[in-house]
């Protein structure tokens, strides 16, 4: 059941993310001019990408169908991860690089704050991280990233997908200065989240095409990561 | 086991929207020019729609084929929707959403005014982000004491521009059948299957559209 559980986690979060109703808090830079140095806490990323087929025949056949689906998904995840590892591709590094450059372009100084965290959660105590003189902590984690196809067939190709949550916490008093959710290529998105449509340049008719073109697949994923990072920077303008 | 089927309320909501949409008049086409319109020198604050400090109290303003308009200092014309803010001693949030209607969507920016109609600040067009599977543009802003009106105005520089986006969706079909039993009864059975679709959504930024606003206290985030 562990495989089944792992398989449904991202899919379920992709499909049901709209149920969350946490508030978005906008950042207003003009009212906190003292925020000039941002400590970027090590972003939380899953161990590897997810390859999600959002609708399958197996879904119509109860537990047996779900188990078959889970096995097939696990196989796709493993193959795609191997393809990305063969290119030395790190999703976290690609994201962090763009995030840092984007924040600096907005005039912030950036300090990287190493931190360990629970999966899919913000860091609970920033005092536990190595202390550096920063004005605020930018805390980001992804709930999943990879490729998603809405269904089977040529009309629903695989496209990059990424879901993340971000917040900016003032160092002095731990006040939340900004919090939001970003969904790149969402499916069934709900309210209270920023959505980014996928780049139409990156589509793969089926999984074999996706994993058979690893350089292009990597470029598509990098695009999703960078555009999502840039959106975080836009929220902090 | 966690269900991978979308929440029924979402699907039911989609079906309801579809049914209502079939009965309603089609939305007007995108309005791409205010030529010939006699626009005021500034927004009409008397007609501003009051907002209450309640996230569930949504105020909608429909900018139709002949929306209210004013002339900016640079001579450009803007359609607009004006909201009167609740009088609060502390900071609070206002959420502004511009919704797609048919093929059009108001391309918004925000002007904030004091109680006597003096412009305090502007929230530019690029502060708006797509929300809700790209069917709307959203911006949130913190309102400070002394700020009294929010005007959501069309952004003249982006009128007529188009935005094209890919939308994925999941659908469920359920078929139900009845069959007779050997004992004269009936058995009702149903079978559901799920399928995905991908569509291209194209919208033109226009002077008309639907604007909604809410006001709420700044939430405490754990």
Mean of all residue-level pLDDT scores of chain B: 85
- What is the approximate shape of chain A? elongated
Task: Write down how many β-strands of chain A occur, each being a DSSP E stretch of 2 or more residues.
Answer: 7
Q: What is the CA-atom radius of gyration of chain B, in angstroms?
A: 22 Å
Sequence stretches where pLDDT stays below 50 over 5 or more residues of chain A: 1-10, 15-20
Structural class of the secondary structure composition of chain B? mainly beta
Q: Indicate the proportion of strand residues of chain A.
A: 15-25%
How widely separated are the two ends of chain A? Answer: 45 Å
Separation of the first and last Cα atoms of chain B: 28 Å
Q: Give the % helix of chain A.
A: 25-40%
Structural class of chain A: alpha/beta
The beta-strand count of chain B equals: 14
- What is the helical fraction of chain B, as a range of percent? under 10%
Helix and strand pattern of chain B: HEEEEEEEEEEEEEE
Rg of Cα set of chain A: 18 Å
DSSP summary: helix tally of chain B: 1
The tally of helices of chain A reads 5
Strand content of chain B: over 45%
Largest interface: chains, residues each: A-B, 56 and 43 residues
Q: Indicate the mean pLDDT of chain A.
A: 87
The helix-strand sequence of chain A is HEEHHEEEEEHH
